[in-house]
Amino acid sequence: MSDLEAINALPVLDHSILNGIRRLTGDPQSASAFLQVLANQYLEDAPKYLDQIATALREQNGTQLAQAAHTLRSSSASLGGTQLAGLCKIVETLGRSQEVEAAQPYQQPLNDLAHAFQDALRQELLPES
Question: Would the pLDDT of 129 be above 60?
Fold first, then answer.
């Protein structure tokens, strides 16, 4: 199985990670409020990291690419974005090895998956206003 096949087999939103956070907080109301704060912060920050990735690809800057992909990977994984985190890891690794050109084909799938994960977070954690 290729890395991409393995990543595609992962859920866009891994509910077990969110449930783990819920168990840590103990109180369902506190857990919900805490997760909403985390989700809102993520939804504010993720587009910045996607922009940084796009800029790094455009400017052929492997170091910036690796840093932005790493940050997006970490924050996505912490909220259950296992599929997105997996794809970010590939891009991060390519950036670290200065293989920026090889990371180019991942930009659109990364953006698409990031938007799918953001939509899943909104549906799961943010009640309709």
Answer: no
Nearest to 92 by CA among 71, 78, 76, 113: 71
In angstroms, how far is CA 70 from the centroid of its own chain?
A: 9
Phi, psi of 6 (to 5 degrees): -65, -40
Confidence (pTM): 0.91
Do residues 35 and 22 touch, judged by C-beta distance below 8 A? yes
- DSSP conformation letters of 1-70: --HHHHHHTS-SS-HHHHHHHHHHH-SHHHHHHHHHHHHHHHHHHHHHHHHHHHHHHHHT-HHHHHHHHH
Secondary structure of residue 98 in the 3-state scheme:
coil
